[in-house]
Amino acid sequence: MECAFDAQNLISISLRKIQSSRTQRGGIKLHKNLLVTYVLRNARQCYMSKNALQTQRTPPYEDAATVRGRQEYLELTGSFTEFADDFYCNFAGVQSDTWHCGAHQSMAQHMELGHQDASACAMVSPSDSDLMVSEACWSCADKSSWELPISNTQVNQKTVLDLDTHVVTTVTNGYFHSDCCAQPKQPQAAAPCYSRKRKMDTSYYIVDPELYLPDFVPLSCKRMRSEDDDDDYLESDSEQLDSANISNLISVLGSGGLSEFVSWQQMDLEQIFGSQTICSKHTLLAGSGWTRAIEAF
Amino acid sequence: KTIKLWKISERDKRPEGYNLKEEDGRYRDPNTVTTLRVPVLRPMDLMVEASPRRVFANAHTYHINSISVNSDHETYLSADDLRINLWHLEITDRSFNIVDIKPANMEELTEVITAAEFHPDQCNTFVYSSSKGTIRLCDMRASALCDQHTKMFEEPEDPNNRSFFSEIISSISDVKFSHSGRYMMTRDYLSVKIWDLNMETRPVETYQVHEYLRSKLCSLYENDCIFDKFECCWNGNDSVVMTGSYNNFFRMFDRDYRQDVTFEASRENSKPRSVLKPRKISTGGKRKKDEISVDSLDFNKKILHTAWHPLDNIIAVATTNNLYIFQDKLN
Fold first, then answer.
1. Contact residues, chain B, for A35 at CB < 8 Å
2. Which among B81, B162, B165 has the least Cβ separation from residue A39?
3. Chain B nearest C-alpha distance from A43 (Å)
4. What ipTM goes with this model?
5. Tens digit of pLDDT for each residue in B90-127?
């Protein structure tokens, strides 16, 4: 097998393929996406086996208990059906075209995740200017927070990168907040709404970032679905024949599931990002302005 | 997701001299007709007409990859990624589902159907191939839903060849029965395999189509070429098999003489009456004259579809925008 760098490369290429297949004519190709999943799995296995050697050198950022806790926490909550489409995709998860990049509100509690997010975002597409936010917004890391276990409240937060405006926003419990530095803006007065998605095109499908991004917080689809806009309600399309069956391919990725990704990402952060600092920038995404976004859980 | 049955016909004559119609089709006022004449058939430029005769719709949720008419000439099957349906040619509003590999939980999806075909003589037998490189033979007499295969053909993977792309290159893109019905041929990304229906453990013959691509799988994955679906075909007496490749190359493998040849379908090489010259790809360091190096292959020029006349040595080869028809050298 190729070295770990190739594995990283393959992972980003594969994620890009999945991303672009959402906009291709003719709809989602189940067969092709299934094969891309296998490449992702193989690349991950290779990468992790290589990193297993390196973890002996790097300081552990989490103790075993934390990892176990995370494993439980990261159990997928069930199938993700988001699309009013007669296409299914075996990658469940994020709504329409949002890739959710991790979110955190307070530094103390969520730094860990923040770091993961940063690396996750960067990992997703190291060279894809489309996905990269030139001024990635993450709170500056507090190293001590690495040891903090992920708390359950994290599930209610996510940071979203808008592919069009390259703006990062954190959504918490239905409210939009600024990113990092724990300076919440006025929560949106509207009913709880997570990252919105635009009206589902029948040719789109969902990609579950949790499958590919090293860190993620499992979110039930229901929460991620926009609830305040009938237009965005995905299940309404009468053409959809298999909406109930869109779910992720965790099994393809192996029994280790998502936790492997998380620990993988943890160890890799230092290697990949070194002293990458994160400046903060926040914005409030208003109303239905979401067209394309990447959510890194 | 819709199947249509078309009638194709040729027209090389047309009637002229109608009494009630002008030549351009407008109707004449009957009061202006003073004499009568008999319309005659006059030759015209050959025209090929296609008219839809049946539309079989709303039976597939996923993309259809195969259609196969049964040897009874009354029924046919259509296969999509997860299901195979059986139709009657005369009944368009209803079909029977005979294979369904969709898991209850899509999270458990691990393979899809890639091709399916009826046996040439046994109207109860069909095969379908999967993205995992397996072929399942089913007998419709066994049960209404043929989820339980009668035979499963699978070759164990060579562990030495394991790579990131093992799953992709083992996915079968085409399956074809031999005319005799005794063998079937499968095409995966790098090879063609001949299977004896009586032996499920491994193919009886394997032919490498373009093994030199194995070291280039990463680039082929990036440019999506690795997902190309090549077809394959048998000649009339099952002694030669043919399949396409890149750079507008197509390959023939003679099973009896254990020979193979590569030809190129291109306008420069295909003047009428000229004989196709065999091509060679240089895989080693030194490139001989007339050989083509792997790096100069054009991956945008691919031959995915080929067909061989069932009786004569006439072949049809499709490049991206052109159809080439070649025949045996006339002595």
1. 131, 167-168, 171, 227
2. B165
3. 6
4. 0.89
5. 999 999 999 999 999 988 899 999 999 999 999 999 99
